Amino acid sequence: MSKNKLYLFIIVACLTGFSYLFYSIHYSKSTSLSLCMVKNFTGYPCPSCGTTRAIQLLLKNNWMASLQMNPFGILVALLMGVLPLWIVLDTITKKETFFNNYQKAEAIIRTKKLAIFLIILVIFNWIWNIKKGL
C-alpha cells in the first residue's frame, strides 16, 4: 500500500471511529441499533464487541471497567489518539516516520509465531465476550 493510501485509510478510519463514538455517547441510548453484523446475524458477539463501550469507560477514567469490557478498547483508543496526530506531523514535516514504522511493524506481525499468538489472543477475547454475554 502506498504512503498516501495508508494515511488516507487511517484518517478515514479514525474519523469514522470518532463519529461513531460521538453518536454512541449522545444518541445510541434511544435506539437498539448495533453495527456488529456478527451479533445481528448470529446473536453472538464478535471479538471486538464492547470496544466502543470500553472507550467510553476510558473517557470516564474508569480503566479497570474498560479493560474488563474489552481490552481492545484501550488499544483502539490509543491508536485513534496517536495515529492521526502522527500522520499530521509527518505531513507537516514532510517526513515518512509513520509509514516507515508501519512497514516495520507489519513485517514483524507477519512472522508466523507472532501472527499465531495474536490470533490466539483474539480467539480468547472472543470466547471471553461470549462468556460475558456481550
Please, could you describe this protein's structure?
By secondary structure, the protein is mainly α. It is built from seven helices and no strands. The chain has helices at residues 3-26, 37-42, 51-59, 63-69, 72-93, 97-109, 112-132. Helix 1 (3-26) packs across helix 5 and helix 3 crosses helix 5. The chain is globular, with a radius of gyration of 17 Å. The model has no long low-confidence stretch (mean pLDDT 89).
* Biggest sheet overview: none
Oligomer state equals: single chain
Q: How would you sum up the global shape?
A: globular
User: Which residue ranges are poorly predicted, with pLDDT under 50 across at least 5 consecutive positions?
Assistant: none
Mean pLDDT: 89
- In N-to-C order, the SSE pattern is HHHHHHH
Tally of DSSP helical segments:
7
Computed CA radius of gyration, to the nearest angstrom: 17 Å
Which range best describes the helical content: under 10%, 10-25%, 25-40%, 40-55%, 55-70% or over 70%? Answer: over 70%
- N-to-C span: 35 Å
> Care to count the β-strands?
0
Q: Report strand %.
A: under 5%
Decide which structural class fits the backbone.
mainly alpha
Explain the layout of strands and helices:
Elements: H1 3-26, H2 37-42, H3 51-59, H4 63-69, H5 72-93, H6 97-109, H7 112-132
